[in-house]
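Structure ticket #2291
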Amino acid sequence: AFFLRNPLAGGLPQDVLSITRERFVGEGMQDHVCIRNESPTAAQFVLELDVATDFADIISVKERDFDLGHPDHAPPLPPPAAVRFDADRNQLVLEENGHGSARTQVILSRPGEIGGGTVRFPVELGPRKRWELRIDVVASLDAAGVPGLLLPAADVIDDTYTQIEQLGAAT
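Resolution: structure written out below.
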């Protein structure tokens, strides 16, 4: 898990937001992002995610590392893949060479404002309230990909938070 606080940016005072990102890796990768307003006043901000891939193979990437390869002689990495938005599945799809021979799906649990490979989420949080986003990332060689969100690991997190909050209220 990663635990962060907001910097002095975007019109927010420093440390108004606590940001937690929990990651699960299995058949794909799943991030669960939770942002909580720690202040006694409402907070407005925009969460922005940038999504990109170049589908470079690991040998090409390692060739660019001074410890593992020869960066001075390494061939250039492929250009970034085009990104398209699939509104029916609320996902960004990145395909190698635009053909779908290899693909990465970035599936979002809530809608956002899409612009190329950027997703913007305007967020308004009341005092001590939280906002959550689940991001499933699936890489495949199958043009069909996966139909939607992966295993409900984020649901386990939600249940755990609920149990913790109930324990806190009981004491």
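Closing remark: The mean pLDDT is 85.
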